[in-house]
Model the fold of this input.
Amino acid sequence: MRTDRRLLVLSGPSGVGKTTVVARLRQRHPEVWLSVSATTRPRRPGETDGVDYHFVDDATFDAMTAAGDLLEYAEFAGNRYGTPRGPVLEHLAAGDPTLLVIDLQGARQVRASLPGSQLVFLAPPSWDELVQRLVGRGTEPPEVVERRLAQARVELAAEAEFDVTLVNTTIDDVCDRLVALLRIPTGPAPDGAPC
Ligand code: 5GP
Done:
């Protein structure tokens, strides 16, 4: 399937700031369609089912994989995550700029099945900063933070597999670069703000 490079896959280690950057991008550019993944991870405070994720149990996740409903899926730090296939294909067919925020294993699978996609790696300014962010946000118990840091080392080592690396220096800068990669037409923002 030709995706016209409208499909952008954003990956990067846990804690690097993907959620914050994507929230800014969508605030400024609601025309970007963001895939909502299914996950077996427990819901965090403030997360909404169907908005942040489709929170499902193991049996439901198994059924989705068995039915071929997931474009890609992976296990990450003890939980399973996957991208529902149908909505992605529908939005690409409609020509919408489409964004997946998924881990390295998922990015590899998307590259294999939709070779026109752009793989973008969001890197932290430094390892220390990543550790501080992941520990400091306090959303996970220490053993989960450890697993996420171990996974972060694996993800950072795979940076060269991506088409583009963006270092998360400022949200506006990363947001601007994503807009350019998605080829979203830009005009002056109504409030004069960047991105
Ligand atoms: P978190 O639990 O912090 O929300 O997400 C953990 C990791 O799973 C992040 O790197 C996130 O990008 C990734 N992730 C979220 N949804 C998906 C998905 O549908 N597929 C894959 N492969 N990874 C995902």
Notes: The first helix runs from residue 18 to 28. The pocket of guanosine-5'-monophosphate is lined by residues 14, 18, 37, 41, 72, 74, 76, 81-83, 101-103, 105-106 (CB under 6 Å).
